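Entry:
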Amino acid sequence: MSNISRRNFLRATALSGAALASSRFTVSILAEEAKGANDKISIAVIGVRGRGGNHIDGYLASKNCAITYLVDVDETVGKNCADKLEKRQGFRPKFVKDMRDILADESLDTVSIATPNHWHSLQAIWAMRAGKDVYAEKPVCQNLFEGRTLVAAVKKYQRICQVGTQCRSNQGIIEAIKFIHQGGIGEVKLARGLCYKRRKSIGQLGDYPIPEGVDFDLWSGPAIFTDPKVTRKQFHYDWHWQRLYGNGDSGNQGPHQTDIARWGLGLMRHPNKIITYGGRLGYQAERKNPDYIDAGDTPNTEVSILDYGDKTIIFETRGLETPALDNTKIGVIFYGSEGKLVQRSYTHSIAYDKEGKVIKEFKGGDDGNHYRNFISCVRSRKSEDLNAPVMDGYLSACMAILGNASYYVGEKNYQSVENIQKALQQVDQRDDNAATLARTVEHLKANKVDLEKYPLSLGPELIFDPEKEIFTNHDDANKELTRQWRDGYVCPSAEEV
């Protein structure tokens, strides 16, 4: 097994990976049983920019971990990171550009994924087929198809898989959710997630060069290979706002808040109905150019209504300047029969009674808790002790995917505010739709958006079958639940994994 060639590994992955995974899985289990309590967990960090740096810090804080590999498609960035890490941990990790080159190493225990969204699931699936445990950043999937396969892979290969929704390890949030579950604000059937995060234009839509040192074919991975050219000025990070790679802020910042909202409402299932309105608005006024075309194609203003039958979650995305709601811009508001609870930050929440008086405050948090929880479960093999298991990560990621599906199929359905209001009156859920729409419109007008020239888009109300995981009333919307896979990067189905 240690001499398996990369070519043979790729062939096995593209076909089924079953025999390869089975033998690696057996070897890995034997290795885990032989590993002593004082042996260090060997970790590969995949993607070292941005969140990858946080992963490195988290593992270095533990004396039980050793970062043995760094993987990044940008050779300059990866080697520079290896130089710095060598000084910090006392030995140099091996740098490689392609994670498939490290999966045959039986001494490697875990893979920690901090790459762009379109890579998360496939890399995690490859790692688990090779017998590795996985920490995967949120959103754990960019589309529903690959997320479903990831969930199946965790079960089949009996791997430990933690999702990077670190609020689930922050004590202040844990205590706030417990307070809700114990009836602290009465019966709760409505939660509102907020991402009021100023995002300026990512630049004029154009034709820009690939940064020197970046393997763009490998960076693209399962996404369509664009020639190799990109249409955004800033290559790194701004991919979040292009739907080929990212999910917009509803799938970037959003999974933290949608995860908390779903957790607080006790929902372990998909919604039954989804409707979204929004647009990518305001950048013409920002640039003082009515013909300006921003390179992003995900909405910067978006309201998704997710109906679970007995409960409702609203998620609001605002990328333009906007005032806070209930003193929070990034958080969740839970509405109870006896009061409300407002998540003010990752570490701070406040509960109020019906008169607005503070009942209780909840504080405390540490990103490191999430990595320690993961490593503890890697050692114990008790997946039930994970704070953020894969099913929770999958359900929360799908909330953005389903909401975006309504927006994308209705993207050209431009409507007046009055028509949107009339349509929302037909939507059966628990929010005051008129008030939410009014606040959304008010913030657009405050940012000098001409809604007659640049109107909001209204998506259809989509009916979703939570068991079959398909839309039952819109074939085009189902196309938004998967992608066109590239040769060499094809994600297997849940049945094939």
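Residues 464 and 471 are 4 Å apart (CA to CA).
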